[in-house]
Specification:
The complex is a heterodimer.
Chain A: H1 5-15, H2 23-54, H3 62-91, H4 97-139, H5 142-187
Helix pairs in contact in A: 2-3, 4-5
Chain B: H1 3-19, H2 26-42, H3 52-69, H4 90-108, H5 111-121, H6 126-133, H7 137-158
Helix pairs in contact in B: 1-2, 1-3, 2-3, 3-6, 4-7, 5-6, 5-7, 6-7
């Protein structure tokens, strides 16, 4: 009797019934953690805004006020980004394998462009930094100038340099390798052109 | 459908899809966890435009692909590590062993053949497989034919 091996394999395959219901707990834990971080972030931003509103922008406190303004704006921008990301994640339908690879390619192209533009903009941003430092040097006492230059500008720009020239390109290279692995796994040893 | 119902109904299928991507052990456990979390997280987004079945399998395969893309080389299971018992409760183990042999052979297939084959073994029709993988029915047929031929060779080598 000629039997189809596919039926035999399917029967063997479907005979395995591992329950993974216990993994729901992990899901719930992750949900709670995300929710906690989200509301924690909202609370922190609210406190910063409240403090900002309370601080009077008189000339003596102008530096503190502006510094706090900048920090609050950064926190709000980060918060908006997180909310947008969550919204996007919740409205995006799951991708097919083909769509997933296309999305990876698209994201990689975007990342490569971002890194390239970051590196191009870098010399211009340095000019701004130098101009700002010269202005501060002319108008503020030397202690304040040193505090701004060494306490804020130097670590900030070092971090930005690291992200632009080291971390960003490294992440892009990792993504290139990841996509290469995926494409190789899709076609490894097989020509798919004839069935596409 | 609640979280519990979803995992009860599709949990075993998710575990089998995970087996087509990862050998037994921590890698497969992690993948099962990722799949379960991704499916449960995506449940509120399900609008009924596609069947829940295709929705779940799409997410599961996307998780599998994301996992294997991060690996340089997957160390696979030694199928001979399972004993070869003949009867009694040990027969179940034998079935487990044959299942792992099959899963091992499936993992040797390229993704373009592995995915349709796994879905076919799950009992899905050509149309459903085409919906999940965004392929025409003809392409699904061609790939399944190739996958079956390759899998036969691999199973002979294993067996």
């Amino acid at each position: 009797m000629n039997h189809d091996p596919l039926d035999e394999w399917a029967s063997l395959w479907q005979s395995q019934r591992h329950d993974i219901e216990h993994l729901r707990e992990d899901f719930m834990r992750r949900q709670r953690k995300e929710s906690l971080s989200f509301w924690g972030g909202i609370m922190a931003i609210s406190l910063m805004v409240a403090f900002l509103l309370k601080t009077m922008p008189d000339p003596e406190k102008m530096f503190h006020f502006l510094f706090h303004c900048g920090a609050t704006m950064l926190a709000i921008a980060a918060g908006v980004q997180v909310i947008w990301f969550h919204w996007h994640k919740q409205t995006t339908l799951p991708l097919s394998p083909k769509g997933y690879i296309e999305k990876c390619r698209h994201n990689l192209a975007l990342d490569q462009r971002n890194v390239l533009w970051g590196q191009r903009i870098w010399p211009i941003s340095l000019l701004f930094l130098v101009a700002a430092l010269v202005m501060i040097f002319q108008r503020a006492p030397i202690e304040r100038f040193l505090l701004i230059a060494l306490g804020l500008a130097a670590p900030g720009y070092t971090f930005a340099w690291y992200v632009t020239f080291v971390y960003g390109p490294r992440k892009v290279n990792e993504e290139v390798r990841r996509l290469h692995n995926l494409e190789q796994a899709m076609t490894d040893g097989f020509k798919t052109s004839e069935d596409e | 459908m609640t979280d519990e119902e979803l995992l009860k109904q599709y949990g075993p299928a998710l575990a089998r899809v995970a087996a087509s991507y990862a050998p037994p052990g921590s890698l497969r456990d992690d993948l099962q966890q990722e799949m379960a979390i991704a499916v449960l997280g995506a449940l509120p987004r399900w609008r009924g435009e596609s069947s829940m079945l295709t929705y779940v399998y799409r997410i599961a395969h996307r998780c599998g692909m994301a996992m294997i893309s991060t690996l340089d080389d997957v160390e696979d299971v030694d199928v001979d590590a399972y004993p070869h018992p003949a009867s009694g409760p040990e027969a179940l183990l034998s079935q487990q062993q044959r299942y792992e042999q099959l899963a091992y052979a499936i993992r040797q297939l390229p993704l373009s053949l592995r995915q349709p084959m796994t879905l076919r073994l799950e009992g899905l029709s050509y149309e459903e497989i085409g919906q999940i993988l965004e392929l025409s029915v003809n392409v699904v047929g061609v790939r399944l034919h190739r996958a079956t031929t390759t899998l036969k060779t691999l199973m002979k080598q294993e067996g």
